[in-house]
Amino acid sequence: MADNTRRLLDLLAYLQTGRRFSGSELADRLQASPRTIRRDIERLRSYGYPVVTQPGPGGFYRLSAGNALPPMVFDDEEAVATVVGLGLLAATTADDDGATGMAAAADRAFGKIDQFLPKRLRAPATALRGTVEATAQSAPAIDADVLATLATAAARHEQVTFTYTTRTGTIARRRAEPYRQVHRLLRWYLLAWDLDRADWRTFRIDRIGEITSGGKRFTPRPLPAESAADYLRGALTAGRYRAVVTVAAPADRVADILRFQDCDIETLTGGRCRVTTWIDSFEWLILNLAFLDADFVIERPAEFRDRCRTLAERLSRAGTGP
Known about the structure:
Number of helices: 11
Order of helices and strands: HHHEEHEEHHEHEEEEEHEHEEHEH
Distance between the termini: 84 Å
Strand order of the largest sheet: 9-8-7-6-10
Largest sheet: 5 strands, antiparallel
Structural class: alpha+beta
């Protein structure tokens, strides 16, 4: 009985991701027969979970988004992650008008998430809400409706039109095929095919307004990179210097110093690490690494090494006194 219950909970956890799963895929993941999976699906339906079934070749199981669901089935770690995640999002504030739309919604959800949890997890969730605080993080305001509209259009392969405010303040009407929404460094971005420019573009979602989806379908194109996040990173780092440095300090210490910097940190032997980053100023990186009180070697580019020597000579002269 315990194994059956565990399998049913695992099945529900997979379906609650919102993905579509074939019967064979679920059978492999749960180490059960397809017949057992079908029987478990019927049990979930009897408990009130709206599981949609598509039979035949290419068939799948998917949990439909209903207006009312039974209490969410979380394990202890999932409940903690949910409450903490809502608390962190609720701490996000806009630069000008306090809590953002998404943050305000998270704050409301943070205050009532326990009533949707199984009874045994409500006391720990209440304790977390009462004892966990997060310092405010400044970020542009994001409208939850805009995220939802873009997500729906991308899932249905529908074109969207919207106004877009550039960084110079110019407002233009754009037509696009939406593909992915990416969260990076407290900013939300849309990866889309720009119909007027016939090319891939990324748009800051906080600068999108008056969005409409007319229902005109498009045929999905292959993504221009391994993932939308990879493409966005390439777009944001274009034109910057790529620097590679080996530091005689553990990766976690270096990551703490560079926590707001776009970089990859690779752990090496002997308590060292290799940092690959994209920067506008070599001097900025040199000074930040100097604060570690650890030796470092500049691998590339050569220009970085030249800048470092020049800065060292300047600091040496400053240290000699009048």
